[in-house]
Write a structure and sequence with these properties.
Blueprint (H helix, E strand, L loop, with lengths): L4 H8 L1 E4 L2 E4 L8 H10 L2 H7 L4 H10 L2 E3 L7 H8 L8 E3 L9 H10 L5 E3 L8 H10 L5 E3 L8 H10 L5 E3 L9 H10 L5 E3 L8 H10 L5 E3 L8 H10 L5 E3 L8 H10 L14 H4 L5 E3 L8 H10 L12 E2 L12 H12 L6
Parallel strand pairs: 3-4, 4-5, 5-6, 6-7, 7-8, 8-9, 9-10, 10-11, 11-12
Antiparallel strand pairs: 1-2
Helix pairs in contact: 2-4, 5-6, 6-7, 7-8, 8-9, 9-10, 10-11, 11-12, 12-14
């Protein structure tokens, strides 16, 4: 609904009561319950326009709007946040993703001072933000469950560690490209403070090493997805720690982690292998196929050999190399082209068991 359509909507609003139809003659006459229903139907841009219609609309928006995205705002996002955050106090989700950096620390501070129930915050590509923003969020938004600060290259590991000491409910954290913030020191703090963490993106955080990842593995046993792509310092020690301590791990990104060897792959295969010796042709339940690793990226991990990677595939039938279902990514590893997933064995079995009719 566009801003200009609000009047059209208003003209059509009618209330039925006392055996007759009453036409609403003024915005202020709309009951709060109906306003809340109307607000729930508005898109983000129209919500902002509607908040200025009258005090009734403003109050309805304060009560009814829980999720808002301003990513469509290309030029004046900072001032918009400064104006809107004090009105939208019940926000639980706020998306401020930017194509070009607009947000400043003062906008994040206003968010932290007013939106204390915020659970999902996206500040990706906010290159102008400093540690002030993380300190403000630590004190004002302690209910955060999902935080995306990917590309925020000015944040320090001290500020990130401080944030985790207050925002202990974090389950999803994106630190991709946070080259200063994502260090072993920060990962140790995350492992110590954020035991509920389920997903962490550390892509191209080149300061991350084994000390940080092992601390993370020991502290975050419910970890489901971990992206270590481009973390060139990690070795088998990190993967072995994950294999031994994170039984719910479903997705692991190791692109360009060229220090990873077969020892790490065998550790993954042996730690959570289910029904490893079960015949490929037998029937598996959906739960059985969905257990253990379901996505693994080992592209450019050139030290790996086919026997180790094949053992991993044998242990986790949800890892696929077949066309259309690639969940085991091995690009750049020419020596691994002989590795095949369960589908290939099943196809081979079917091909040899089907009767061939003479024509």
């Amino acid at each position: 609904m566009k801003g200009g359509e609000l009047e059209v909507c208003f003209e059509r609003l009618m209330m039925v009561g006392g055996g007759r139809v009453n036409i609403i003659s003024d915005w202020n006459e709309i009951p709060m319950e109906l306003l809340l229903r109307i607000v729930s139907l508005l898109d983000d841009r129209t919500v902002i326009v509607a908040s200025a219609v009258c005090c009734g609309w403003r109050d309805a928006i304060c009560l009814g709007v829980t999720h808002l995205s301003l990513s469509w705002c290309k030029n004046n996002m900072n001032n918009m946040v400064l104006s809107l955050a004090p009105k939208f106090k019940n926000l639980r989700g706020l998306i401020l993703r930017q194509d070009k950096p607009q947000l400043l620390d003062n906008a994040v501070e206003v968010i932290a001072n007013n939106c204390h129930d915020l659970e999902d915050l996206d500040l990706s590509k906010s290159f102008k933000l400093s540690d002030r923003s993380l300190y403000a969020l630590a004190h004002g938004c302690q209910n955060l469950i999902k935080l995306n600060i990917s590309g925020c290259s000015s944040f320090s590991d001290n500020a990130l560690a401080y944030l985790t000491s207050y925002c202990k409910k974090l389950k999803i954290l994106n630190l991709c490209g946070c080259v200063k913030a994502a260090s072993d020191k920060a990962l140790k703090a995350i492992g110590y403070n954020c035991s509920q963490l389920q997903s962490l993106v550390l892509g191209w955080c080149e300061e991350v090493g084994d000390d940080g990842v092992t601390s993370l593995a020991h502290g975050c046993h419910d970890l489901r997805a971990l992206d270590l792509c481009g973390c060139v310092l990690i070795t088998d020690e990190s993967v072995i720690a994950l294999a031994n301590n994170c039984p719910h791990l479903r997705s692991l990104g190791l692109y360009y982690c060229q220090n990873i060897t077969d020892q790490a792959i065998y550790a993954l295969a042996h730690s959570r292998a289910t029904n490893k010796h079960q015949a490929w042709g037998s029937v598996r339940t959906r739960d059985e196929e969905g257990s253990g690793l379901m996505n693994l990226n080992i592209s450019q991990c050139t030290a790996l050999t086919p026997p180790a990677v094949q053992a991993l595939c044998d242990s986790f039938p949800a890892l696929h190399t077949c066309p259309g279902r690639h969940s085991l990514i091995i690009s750049g590893c020419l020596n691994l082209t002989s590795v095949h997933c369960a589908c290939a064995f099943q196809a081979h079995r079917v091909d040899h068991t089907l009767p061939h009719h003479a024509y």
